[in-house]
């Protein structure tokens, strides 16, 4: 009897342990501990799920790190989002290999310049090392200025961009835009789909780096002013001016539809006018850094510009009354149109045209010799010409924005003179904006405006490749 009771208790104890060890779900499967699950996986053998990995997706999906369905010519994700221009495929179909990005017209081998970390930025579109090499060897010679400015671009701005990502993206964007300009104006070298495809890649690369630069530029302006930030701010401000003027979306053709003058809706006018506002506000943006300028690498250039402008003012130039030809017509009529007689009570509020008129007269009396269209010559007079834009007061800018005819007339004359400097990043914008303003002024009721404009003597388009054909010189 005692033995039977002991066996019964033992069986009951084992049953209780089994019930505590395994709890069952409603579907009859036991709830396993982590250790039991691990043992079960080891005994069963863990097999990786079979899948196919492809590296042949489009550039847009690769950049966003999302799976591409590889439908050509436009994949499903790009078609759904409307980003068809960014849907570019690699011509090399071998997995794991990067196709070499080549430019059909200007073959560049980036052997002399390699900066750490650069190749991680949008290399699926245009290699960043290629853009940096082009900036060093080509763009730095073509931006603006003589040897001193060019050395700043190459030996100061480029090294600074290693630690300042905003400047890095600005340099890459300007380089891509320069390559795009060269492709557009050398289409006689190569035709067909490949040429168009390369231009799409360059545009995509330009906007990628331009948008990154614009975002980082705003953050940099919040940093404490110092010598380093002053170097960065002046470098970024200069390149920002280049980028907003040379935006390919607004300069891709000679059409006047991109100008604020032809727009009607307020938002459209503001968007098309933004490039002028950016130019005009940079002196205000740079004001906190003025006391650090003497210790920056830009200081020697600014001193040279100041001495050049001072020498120009001291030179004997034709006075307003003795200036002959078309310049005489322009200056005399503008003086009447803008009521530029200066008094002790004259302020920008009282006469919004006075400051712009003075700078424009200085430009019109600065000769450009047609036989000396060299970069050094342009560098010498560039300060005089650009002074018109950077010294525009807010009242004159508002007059331009509201399509005031005297302001538009002076601005169009300045744009046309800028074209004669033959600056690649300015030519297309100046041409399209001039055309829009001249079409607008054709219907002017102001007789003197029409007389200045009469016969398009002031406003004749310089022929492509011949900026010196302007008769107002």
TrEMBL record:
**Leader peptide range in chain numbering:** 1-19
The record ties this protein, via SMART domains, to: GAL4 (SM00066)
Zn(2)-C6 fungal-type domain: residues covered: 57-89
InterPro entries attached to this UniProt entry: Fun_TF, Sterol_Uptake_Regulator, Zn2-C6_fun-type_DNA-bd_sf, Zn2Cys6_DnaBD
Q: Which domain of life is it from?
A: Eukaryota
Report whether Transcription shows up as a keyword of the record: yes
Q: Which CDD domains match?
A: GAL4 (cd00067)
UniProt cross-references to PROSITE patterns, sorted A to Z? ZN2_CY6_FUNGAL_1, ZN2_CY6_FUNGAL_2
Transcription among the record's keywords?
yes
Keywords recorded for this protein, A-Z: DNA-binding, Nucleus, Signal, Transcription, Transcription regulation
Q: What Pfam families does the annotation carry?
A: Fungal_trans_2 (PF11951), Zn_clus (PF00172)
Gene Ontology MF term list:
DNA binding; DNA-binding transcription activator activity, RNA polymerase II-specific; zinc ion binding
Q: This chain belongs to which protein, by name?
A: Zn(2)-C6 fungal-type domain-containing protein
